[in-house]
Amino acid sequence: MRLSRFFISGALTVGSEVQLSKEVSSHIHRVLRLKVENEIQLFNGNGNNYQANITHIGKVVSVNIHSSAPGNKESALVIHLGQAISRGERMDFTLQKAVELGVTTITPLISERVQFRFDDKRIKRKMSHWQKIIESACEQSGRTQITQLNQPVELQQWLTISEEPGLLFEPNATARLTEIEQSSAIRLLVGPEGGLSDNEIQTVLENTSFKAVSLGPRILRTETAALSAISILQAIFGDI
Question: What is the domain-level CATH number for residue 36?
């Protein structure tokens, strides 16, 4: 039987008693209807899984941690996804599935055709929402390390943060993902619904670490492009 897993943002120690958050407690009590002595699994992003037994059920659920073990779900391929912000559930879907596929870092990008109203309060709400999606995807997929979510940045700024090899997906490109040189760390750039502008594409390709590659003859939606590329790269260089 598969154990229910929960992310806990705090220290976890074998032998300790832990009170879970009201949100997690409510899910355990009212949705899963677990009982005292039932076993669950906790993780806090440090790479370990913690086995625990429920000791109290109520508005706040208490558990006793009785053992821990390192997780083994992380890919050796380090993928940094630069995803131009897409609207509504498309961005949520991309983040969720990218985490399930093993992406290490995600940076939301602001490009010319991004349709998003930017102000501090809205970005703060979005970051909190996206972080919860990432944590939930880690719970579901068995990962013990939380995908890093960076603050949204302008595309031009993101291009300069690293010298890791980068891939830009361009329908007119002749190179394929199966032809790129093997690397242990890769940056992926995926544009918004309207794609990157010609000027942006030129700017990206002038960055010597980026190479234009094709995902086939068909035009893919932004969320399809990201997840197709991640899947192919994990199959070639990663753990799929």
Answer: 2.40.240.20
How far lies 3's CA from each of 30, 57, 60, 67, 71, in Å? 17, 17, 20, 14, 14
Helix (H) or strand (E) holding 203: helix 198-206
Contact (Cβ atoms closer than 8 angstroms) between residue 53 and residue 64? yes
Percentage above 90 pLDDT, the chain? 75
CB 227 within 8 A of CB 96: no
Neighbours of 122 (CB within 10 A): 11
Structure tokens at 102: 């093993």
Q: What are the percentages of helix, strand and coil residues in the chain, rounded to 5?
A: 30, 25, 40
Q: In sequence order, what DSSP letters do the residues of 64-76 get, joined into one string? A: EEEEEEE-----S
Residues whose CB is less than 8 angstroms from the CB of residue 198 and which lie 6 or more positions away in sequence, other chains included: none
User: What was the pLDDT predicted at 182?
Assistant: 84
User: Domain boundary residue among 22, 45, 70?
Assistant: 70
Per the listing, tokens 């992380």 go with 74
Taking the whole predicted model, whether its pTM rises above 0.90 is answered as yes
**How many beta carbons lie within 10 A of that of residue 203, not counting itself?**
15
What is the structure's pLDDT at 1? Answer: 62
CA distances from 119 to 10, 70, 207 (A): 30, 40, 29
* Residue (of 129, 69, 124, 130) closest to 103 by Cα position: 130
232 and 123 inside one domain: yes
The Cα–Cα gap between 168 and 133 comes to 25
